[in-house]
Write a structure and sequence with these properties.
Deoxyuridine 5'-Triphosphate Nucleotidohydrolase, Chain A; eight-stranded antiparallel sheet; three-stranded antiparallel sheet; 3 helices; globular
Length: 191
């Protein structure tokens, strides 16, 4: 079952599902999700590696940060960037009561691009966030269009949707991407 934006805000008081929301999302969200904003932007530098037991992401370089007063970036045709949200997400590691009288359930979050991105030739790549994850979210944007694309920091660019999970987990997420980490830095063992 998908949670409405109103239900997410209701649960937010107890579980802090999404922190640092914009005034618009706090007072007038639309539909079943909450919009998240651009906070930091990174470019990749170097090679990545994904093995059976080890991995290493490419080195990254921060090119914009709203906290530093940066206002806008331009994504050139063919360019690939990582974008980190201003908002911090917390998916409880335990089952929670979503609706009074209903059985407790885990929550998982799925993120979708705002349609302006695709209408502008910008490809979005995201992933789900499992129960137990907490931190800012990082997504990929690639300019597949033929023209530069201007992206203002603080702009709403994705919509997060929360779903109830049916059944039990073997274990909640304990992974190495907690707390908004963007890259590995060095080769590391996967858990």
């Amino acid at each position: 079952m998908i949670l409405s934006a109103k239900k997410i805000l209701e649960l937010n008081g107890k579980y802090r599902l999404v922190e640092n929301l914009s005034e618009r999302e706090l007072t007038n969200p639309e539909g079943v999700g909450i919009d998240l904003r651009v906070g930091e932007v990174y470019v990749l530098e170097g090679e990545g590696y994904l093995g059976v037991t080890e991995r290493k992401t490419p080195d990254i370089r921060k090119v914009a940060d709203i906290k530093d007063g940066d206002k806008e970036i331009v994504i050139k045709p063919g360019q690939y960037v990582l974008v980190k949200t201003m908002e911090r997400v917390t998916l409880p590691a335990e089952k929670i009561v979503v609706e009074e009288g209903q059985k407790p359930a885990y929550l998982v979050a799925d993120v979708h691009p705002r349609s302006t991105l695709q209408r502008s030739g910008i490809y979005f790549r995201g992933t789900k966030s499992d129960p137990g994850f907490h931190g800012e979210l990082t997504f990929a944007l690639a300019n597949l269009g033929g023209q530069p694309f201007r992206l203002e920091l603080g702009a709403r660019f994705v919509n997060i949707v929360f779903h109830e999970v049916v059944g039990d987990l073997s274990r909640a997420y304990e992974g190495q991407w907690q707390n908004g980490r963007v890259a590995t830095g060095n080769k590391e063992t996967q858990n």
